[in-house]
Specification:
four-stranded mixed β-sheet, alpha/beta, Rossmann fold, Helicase, Ruva Protein, domain 3, five-stranded parallel β-sheet
Length: 377
Amino acid sequence: PQLKLTEPHVNYIKGIIGYYQPNKPEPQRSLAVFKELLTMMEDAIAENGQFVMDKATLKAASMKAAQVPDWIIAKDFSVLKDLPGNIRSRFIGQTEAVDGVVRLARIGYGGGRTDEKPVASIMFAGPTGTGKTYLSKLLAKNLGLKLITMDMTTYRSSVSMDRFLDVMTDNLTINPHAVYVFEEIDKANVQVLDRLYFLLDEGIFYDRNQKPMYARGCYVVMTTNAGYDVIVKNRDKDNVRELFELALLDRFRPSFLNRFDEIAMFRPFTDPEYVDMAKLHIGLKASGMKETYNWNLNVDDNIHGLIARESRSLTFGARPTLRMINGILSLGVTNYQIEKAPLEEGSTIQLDLVSEEDKRFKLSVEGGDSLEFQVNL
């Protein structure tokens, strides 16, 4: 079958793709739509023997060519409805930040917006290891968007400005619909912040030739550790938010901070949250083992408490917890396979705490042997 496009078809496509893929030049962006239409036509004919090329089809092809997620094209807003639950199933604590990213996603994608600003812009501020980057990853995954991460420590000096402009120009051209994470934004040169000021305020990023690059399809997240010491020191005080905002003003201009839709304060994890985190990530590790090796892993509840107590840290947040979980499980499995026998598909594995004081554990395999091992936590 051949794809036959009339002049009105082509003009309609140019208008639609110009909105959803504004930074890629012609004829490349329209050719991408034609390629998408060919794929849609072949699939439709193979499935039901016919292909209807109306405005809805042309718009869908244009949006797919611009990497707009399928759920937005289909207007499947159950994605936004399920977003908080899907994030919470893999993320512990930070209620303020989770509520913020969900609220902004719902407004940005389902609120009938008419402005040219990014879909949303939010600053994540707080101590290291409290989930700022991880929440960004979960947000992108659940929205079906690419995650574009930029380490702003590489743009500290004015001489790095041209490189930053080129990287941003390339990203906005190739990925107009994505979650953009600017990590450690407080480390960026002031010239870099000035360019991002316009991105937040107008949805426009100016390249090295002052050509406007449009960011209306971007969900912008900027992370910083600025103010972390104030949060840690005053975490139990009622006015910690007020003190935190004052600390941010020591690092950022008020006009810059005022351009964000929201600023989320990340707090140190509480003792119960460390226990919940241990349970969650041991469960995720067990699910991964099941999917990859078809192993069935069961873990003694006492291990959750031990990991929570031994790994909690105001300085490093959740990172020691995740390292400890991986260390205990991986060491136990490795030692068993070296000293006892290979673990076969379908094996049921039980991990128990033998001695909290000595940090001794026992790994047992149903129908097989058991092995005690010690971990230096």
